[in-house]
Amino acid sequence: MKVTSIEAGDASKAKVHGVNRGISVFDLVLRIAALVGALGSVVAMGTADQALSFSTQTVNFEAQYDDIDAFKFFVIVNAITCGYLALSIPISIFHIIRRRAGKSRVLLIFLDAIMLVFITSGASAAAAIVYLAHNGNTSTNWFSICQQYTDFCQRSAGSLIGSFGAMALLVLLIILSAIALSRR
Questions:
Q1: Which residues form the Casparian strip membrane protein domain (predicted)?
Q2: DSSP 3-state helix, strand, coil percentages of the chain (rounded to 5)?
Q3: Position 102 pLDDT exceeds 60
């Protein structure tokens, strides 16, 4: 029987590598979840369309997402975020394989922060419009349109859930990358 001794430093390095691999796997899972949330927001808002059952010969009563610039911006920003998250998944897989990669983690923190700003601005602009659609503004005589366009309002409000979820996951991704860098 061969007896080997493990030094205290070797055991702690193995433990740190195991934790870093766990952080990298969790990073990959969060990126996929954020991608799904942002993609769901794009699909839900992009397909938000409702026509009222009555119309006149000259006027059609229809609500579409591209009628409102804030909703267009929301869809574009979420689509850009989806593209970024899809492109960052291979880098996240690289971090699982190569735990000590530092420069790519710094790059991901930087790009994640930029995407967080984008998705926050788009979701905030859309949330303001959804709020006005649901409640209106009596001081400016803007009436609530959600009494007539219920399906459109439900889809647009539902798309905000996915976007705010992706936003929260991006915050977690930034924190996880910072933790992984500090453990190197």
A1: 21-168
A2: 75, 5, 20
A3: yes
